[in-house]
Design the sequence.
C-alpha cells in the first residue's frame, strides 16, 4: 500500500508539472518582426545584425531587455523594396507592455557605390545598438507583427573624408493596423509616393513589369504621386486613396500621358 501511494503521488506530481508547463506555454504571446526598405541610389546597402531585443515598460535601461534573436544575419536593404520583406525575428514573449526595439550590428556593414564596397559606420551600433521607439502590447496566445521600414537614402551620409555613415531612419508600423497600395504602370519605370498631411509616408520604385506596392501604411486617406523616370511623361496623382488595415488598395493599370 505504501508503494502504491508513493507511485500515485509521483504520477500526480508529474501531471501537475506538465499542467504548469502547458499553462505557461499557452499564456505566452509572440512577436514577429519584418524588415523592408525604400529604394536608394546605391547598388547595395548591407547591414550585419547580431542581435535583436525588445524592452519592457517600467524596467531600467539594462535589465529591461529581452533578446528575441541572436543569430548573425546580413541583409541587403535594397533587396527589400516594392513590397518585398524578410522575417527578421520570431520569438515567444511574456505578456506585457513593451516600448522599444533594439538592433545590434557588427563588423561587415557596407554600402556599394558604382560596384565598389565602402565600410558603413553605424555609431554605437555594436555597443548600445540602434534603438527604435515603438510601444506595443503582447497578449496571451497572440502574436504581434511589426514592420521595420528602413529609409536607406535618408539614413546614409557621406562625410567630408569620403567615409559613409548611417544614422538610421526607421519607421515602425503594426502590420495589423496597416495596409498597402499597389498598381501597374505603363511605361514601367516610375517612383511612387504615398503622401498624407503632407508627409511622404512611403516610397517605392516599380519593378521591370511596372508593378509597384507601397507597404506599411496606417489606415487612412492618401495621395499617390507617380513620377516617371522618363521626363517626357507627366506626373500622375491619385487623390483620396483609402487604405484599410489588412488590405491592399489596387489602383489597377495606369497609363501615363505624354507632356
Sequence:
Amino acid at each position: 500500500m505504501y508503494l502504491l501511494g508513493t507511485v500515485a503521488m509521483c504520477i500526480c506530481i508529474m501531471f501537475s508539472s506538465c499542467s504548469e508547463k502547458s499553462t505557461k506555454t499557452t499564456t505566452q504571446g509572440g512577436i514577429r518582426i519584418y524588415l523592408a526598405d525604400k529604394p536608394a541610389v546605391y547598388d547595395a546597402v548591407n547591414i550585419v545584425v547580431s542581435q535583436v531585443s525588445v524592452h519592457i515598460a517600467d524596467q531600467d535601461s539594462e535589465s529591461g531587455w529581452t533578446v528575441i534573436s541572436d543569430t548573425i544575419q546580413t541583409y541587403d536593404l535594397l533587396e527589400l523594396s516594392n513590397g518585398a520583406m524578410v522575417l527578421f525575428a520570431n520569438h515567444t514573449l511574456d505578456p506585457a507592455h513593451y516600448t522599444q526595439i533594439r538592433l545590434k550590428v557588427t563588423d561587415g556593414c557596407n554600402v556599394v557605390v558604382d560596384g565598389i564596397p565602402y565600410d558603413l559606420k553605424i555609431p554605437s551600433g555594436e555597443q548600445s545598438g540602434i534603438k527604435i521607439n515603438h510601444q506595443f502590447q503582447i497578449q496571451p496566445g497572440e502574436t504581434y507583427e511589426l514592420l521595420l521600414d528602413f529609409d536607406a537614402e535618408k539614413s546614409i551620409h557621406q562625410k567630408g573624408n569620403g567615409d559613409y555613415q548611417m544614422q538610421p531612419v526607421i519607421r515602425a508600423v503594426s502590420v495589423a493596423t496597416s495596409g498597402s497600395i499597389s498598381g501597374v504602370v505603363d511605361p514601367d519605370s516610375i517612383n511612387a509616393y504615398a503622401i498624407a498631411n503632407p508627409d511622404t509616408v512611403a516610397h517605392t520604385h516599380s519593378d521591370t513589369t511596372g508593378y509597384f506596392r507601397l507597404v506599411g501604411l496606417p489606415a487612412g486617406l492618401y495621395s499617390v504621386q507617380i513620377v516617371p523616370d522618363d521626363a517626357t511623361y507627366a506626373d500622375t496623382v491619385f487623390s483620396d486613396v483609402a487604405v484599410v488595415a489588412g488590405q491592399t488598395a489596387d489602383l489597377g493599370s495606369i497609363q501615363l500621358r505624354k507632356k
Notes: Residues 2-26 form the longest helix (25 residues). The chain has two domains: 29-168, 179-259. Residues 1-25 have pLDDT under 50 and may be disordered.
